[in-house]
């Protein structure tokens, strides 16, 4: 490998960030956007041969790509194979996107591969072949890392999607997966950006899809002679009682897809007999272990505030999920509802002196737990879809938010930060979007009040609308408000905060609440 630049991690991130701003300039001439350039870059990086040898599992879709990849990686690793995993986006540190044997790449390795690629491209690019865009650079870096580290299997999540996604530089993956197709941020079902790039003769698996989506998939598959199979969600029985490493009912869908992807890979390269998933009554032990230990930050993650000074830990608990589409809002709401109920039940049993779980549970879940929503989403999303989905699904499961907090995101899209960076606080921040979100929320509260038979909201009529929601100028202010509220509340109140709407928001919250 080339000599390592004597640069700090921050310098590498600054160089990486420069590719983000480059992108908009390149867009104007459109030169930097041609897909064929990816092959030029591979040549410049001497990666052509390595790419042909790489044993890739390629995963596209609208929802559940990252989770499917994480399960697949974990299964193969638990069979003793060396793995490389490339996912997006990252929450806190860009190194999360590159895992080797299940662990984020070390800073040292990251730096050495980063500068190797970056400097080489800087030297060899020109007017005709400009520096790659940010997303392409990350994919190229993943190829370099996985080739140099000689992983047995490379599991790649499609990033931007569509034909022009840099991961399509892999021309002959071993197998291709299509996770749930849903509405993208333009609220289009089956947008070209979530479709997989089927490759001639490469087997593909998908999950049960809405009719329209399945029709498009089957059409695409038959055009390319691709054998497309639909995998049913895993069942608890197949897992022989173990829980999946990622929480939420929808993960059984992703795990089912992961089992078929891993099986196909293992049947080809594993030198072992692996039965087809449909023939198994219980999954082999390595599969179960892989599925039970898979992890991915910011998806159905529960983190108690680690900075709060309080009587008992667990007075302020964050439930984080980066859902940002209508369907994922719904699965997120279901997960949150059952997670808080489960947590309150197990907490209440801890507080029991002599049995009688029923009455104690009532006390905890009814009076002393408050659910609060902490929300932001990008302005391309439609809050009139997201917020009602979230609120109604929770309400149907008996969870009613006491208050909703709306905040701007802190991390900025044009700068790649580190865990050590606290995102910037902009005093001139424009909050008009957050007020729009608040208005949507308030109108939901109002229409509920109109419909409610009284019981639920009786006695609150005098409250000003701001009692149900609040806009904060920054995330730290919102977190401070939550901590203060815990201190001011009666000693047995637990605050359970659902953080959702944006993975960036989830990442920002994690930076502020974890030591
Ligand atoms: N099968 C599914 N069906 C519906 N929603 C899902 C499914 N799997 C995951 N989700 C939701 O989508 C969120 C993101 O999950 P994941 O990271 O696995 O998907 P992704 O396709 O990689 O998303 P992104 O577009 O953010 O890269 C989860 O937090 C969850 O709320
Ligand atoms: Mg997406
Ligand atoms: Mg993802």
Automatic annotation (TrEMBL):
<dbReference type="GO" id="GO:0005829">
    <property type="term" value="C:cytosol"/>
</dbReference>
<dbReference type="GO" id="GO:0005524">
    <property type="term" value="F:ATP binding"/>
</dbReference>
<feature type="binding site">
    <location>
        <position position="157"/>
    </location>
    <ligand>
        <name>Mg(2+)</name>
    </ligand>
</feature>
<dbReference type="GO" id="GO:0006730">
    <property type="term" value="P:one-carbon metabolic process"/>
</dbReference>
<keyword id="KW-0554">One-carbon metabolism</keyword>
<comment type="pathway">
    <text>Cofactor biosynthesis; tetrahydrofolylpolyglutamate biosynthesis.</text>
</comment>
<dbReference type="GO" id="GO:0005739">
    <property type="term" value="C:mitochondrion"/>
</dbReference>
<dbReference type="InterPro" id="IPR036565">
    <property type="entry name" value="Mur-like_cat_sf"/>
</dbReference>
<feature type="binding site">
    <location>
        <position position="299"/>
    </location>
    <ligand>
        <name>ATP</name>
    </ligand>
</feature>
<protein>
    <recommendedName>
        <fullName>Folylpolyglutamate synthase</fullName>
        <ecNumber>6.3.2.17</ecNumber>
    </recommendedName>
</protein>
<keyword id="KW-0479">Metal-binding</keyword>
<dbReference type="GO" id="GO:0004326">
    <property type="term" value="F:tetrahydrofolylpolyglutamate synthase activity"/>
</dbReference>
<feature type="binding site">
    <location>
        <position position="88"/>
    </location>
    <ligand>
        <name>Mg(2+)</name>
    </ligand>
</feature>
<feature type="binding site">
    <location>
        <position position="321"/>
    </location>
    <ligand>
        <name>ATP</name>
    </ligand>
</feature>
<feature type="binding site">
    <location>
        <position position="185"/>
    </location>
    <ligand>
        <name>Mg(2+)</name>
    </ligand>
</feature>
<keyword id="KW-0547">Nucleotide-binding</keyword>
<comment type="similarity">
    <text>Belongs to the folylpolyglutamate synthase family.</text>
</comment>
<comment type="function">
    <text>Catalyzes conversion of folates to polyglutamate derivatives allowing concentration of folate compounds in the cell and the intracellular retention of these cofactors, which are important substrates for most of the folate-dependent enzymes that are involved in one-carbon transfer reactions involved in purine, pyrimidine and amino acid synthesis.</text>
</comment>
<dbReference type="InterPro" id="IPR001645">
    <property type="entry name" value="Folylpolyglutamate_synth"/>
</dbReference>
<dbReference type="GO" id="GO:0046872">
    <property type="term" value="F:metal ion binding"/>
</dbReference>
<keyword id="KW-0067">ATP-binding</keyword>
<dbReference type="InterPro" id="IPR018109">
    <property type="entry name" value="Folylpolyglutamate_synth_CS"/>
</dbReference>
<keyword id="KW-0436">Ligase</keyword>
<dbReference type="InterPro" id="IPR023600">
    <property type="entry name" value="Folylpolyglutamate_synth_euk"/>
</dbReference>
<keyword id="KW-0460">Magnesium</keyword>
<dbReference type="InterPro" id="IPR036615">
    <property type="entry name" value="Mur_ligase_C_dom_sf"/>
</dbReference>
């Amino acid at each position: 490998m080339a000599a390592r630049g004597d640069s700090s991690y921050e310098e590498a991130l600054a160089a990486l960030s420069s590719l983000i701003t480059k992108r908009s300039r390149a867009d104007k001439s459109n030169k930097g956007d041609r897909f064929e350039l990816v092959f030029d870059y591979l040549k410049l990086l001497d990666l052509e041969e390595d790419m042909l040898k790489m044993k890739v599992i390629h995963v596209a879709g609208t929802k559940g790509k990252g989770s499917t990849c994480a399960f697949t990686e974990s299964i193969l690793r638990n069979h003793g194979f060396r793995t490389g995993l490339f996912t997006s986006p990252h929450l806190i540190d860009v190194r999360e996107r590159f895992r080797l044997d299940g662990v984020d790449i070390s800073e040292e390795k990251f730096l050495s591969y980063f500068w190797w690629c970056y400097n080489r491209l800087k030297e060899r690019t020109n007017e005709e072949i400009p520096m790659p865009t940010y997303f392409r650079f990350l994919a190229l870096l993943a190829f370099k890392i996985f080739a140099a580290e000689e992983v047995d299997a490379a599991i790649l999540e499609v990033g931007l999607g569509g034909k022009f996604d840099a991961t399509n530089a892999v021309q002959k993956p071993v197998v291709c997966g299509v996770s749930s197709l849903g509405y993208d941020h333009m609220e289009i079902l089956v947008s070209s950006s979530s479709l997989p790039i089927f490759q001639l003769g490469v087997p593909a698996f998908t999950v049960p899809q809405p009719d329209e989506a399945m029709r498009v998939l089957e059409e695409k598959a038959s055009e390319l002679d691709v054998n497309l199979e639909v995998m049913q969600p895993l069942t608890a029985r197949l897992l022989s009682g173990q829980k999946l490493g990622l929480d939420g009912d929808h993960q059984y869908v992703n795990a089912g897809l992961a089992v078929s992807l891993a099986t196909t890979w293992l049947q080809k390269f594993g030198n072992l007999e692996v039965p087809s998933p449909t023939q198994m009554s219980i999954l082999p032990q390595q599969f179960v272990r892989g599925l039970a230990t898979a992890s991915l930050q910011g998806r159905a993650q529960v983190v108690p505030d680690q900075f709060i000074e309080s009587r008992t830990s667990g007075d302020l608990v964050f439930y984080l999920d980066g859902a940002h589409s209508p369907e994922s809002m719904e699965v997120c709401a279901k997960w949150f509802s059952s997670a808080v109920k489960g947590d309150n039940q197990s907490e209440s049993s801890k507080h029991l002196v002599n049995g009688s779980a029923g009455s104690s549970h009532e006390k905890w879940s009814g009076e002393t737990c408050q659910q609060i929503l902490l929300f932001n989403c990008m302005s391309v999303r439609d809050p009139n879809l997201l917020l009602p989905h979230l609120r109604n699904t929770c309400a149907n499961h008996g969870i009613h938010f006491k208050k909703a907090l709306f905040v701007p995101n802190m991390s900025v899209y044009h700068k790649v930060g580190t865990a050590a960076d606290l995102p910037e606080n902009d005093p001139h921040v424009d909050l008009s979007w957050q007020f729009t979100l608040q208005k949507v929320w308030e109108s939901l509260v109002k229409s509920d009040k109109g419909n409610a038979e009284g019981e639920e909201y009786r006695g609150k009529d005098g409250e000003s609308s701001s009692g149900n929601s609040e806009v904060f100028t920054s995330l730290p202010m919102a977190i401070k408000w939550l901590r203060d509220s815990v201190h001011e509340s009666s000693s047995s109140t637990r605050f359970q905060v659902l953080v959702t709407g944006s993975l960036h928001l989830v990442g920002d919250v994690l930076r502020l609440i974890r030591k």
